[in-house]
Amino acid sequence: MPTPERTSLDEIVDAAARLLDEGGPSAVTMQAVAQAVGVKAPSLYKRVRDRETLLARVGERAADELTARLTAASDDLDALLIAFRRFGHDRPEAFRLLFTTVVDAERLAATSAPVLRATTSAVGEKHALDAARLLTAWATGFVTMELGGAFRLGGDLDQAYDYGRAHLVASLSNAHDGDRPAQGS
To answer: Is the pTM of this model over 0.85?
Structure first.
């Protein structure tokens, strides 16, 4: 009779995500994950091929969480930018992991869907991708620099983000092209 399983893939990924949040990618070792779920490290390999695969699973879960947060913001560009930054603050190590090659490109593409819906609504289909890239590049750069302590000239970073957010949203909200739907349609 086979031995009963002592842990599940979900429990393993949960433990790895906690370790990532607490200590960054270097804290996610097979030994540390095994200890966190109460098994010996070799038994983890029944569920995950290697550490890279485990980090990919953690990254997929982080991408899904960010997607859910962005989806909840609906088509509101301002709310999307707030949700994006909040995710970075709530889960800084997961945020950083999203922008590595560990996370599957298709999973990240799903994360962009709520942003594309919002930018399509704001600027029309013709420039939706350009607008989504503008928002994503600005917000990612700001949050990455903020988390890394790169803003060293003083000032209020909340105020700076609000300023940038307001100006980006206003410029996109005022953008017009032939693909933009008429007001009220």
So the answer is: yes
